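Notes from the 1:1 (GR / supervisor)

We went over the backlog. Supervisor wanted to see one worked example end to end before approving the batch request, so GR pasted a single chain during the call. The sequence is below; no edits were made to it. Supervisor asked that the structure be written out right there so they could see what the output format looks like.
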Amino acid sequence: MAFWLMKTEPDVFSWDDLVARGDAGEEWDGVRNYQARNNMRAMEVGEKAFFYHSRSEKAVVGICEVIAAAHPDSTTDDTRWECVDVRALDPLPKSVTLETCKADPRLADMVLVNNTRLSVQPVTEAEWQVICELGGL
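Structure output shown during the call:
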């Protein structure tokens, strides 16, 4: 089982928006980066991802779960773009900021620390544990 991090601008789609969708979840649409798309293609139902608010907050705020494997993105007719569906699982008791991640030597190799622009990225199991610890889980 793999772990992931999915970034969103909270003024466009936030953690609270995903929570409001309930068990039906939401399509992670609108991604137009090949590497991020390929990461979604690699996702399997049941895998978990950190939900990351980009822009102003720059913090991991919750954990979501993949509930539908990669499928055509409904926001475009361009067949190159696919997405997965996710649902909210748990908020982090304490948000984990990008600044905190960069300051923790255990996360020095994390994609988030080294490629802050990639919107869908893998997370190692060790990194997952560190973020959960820092977030109060």
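Supervisor's comment: The first helix runs from residue 15 to 20.
Batch request approved.
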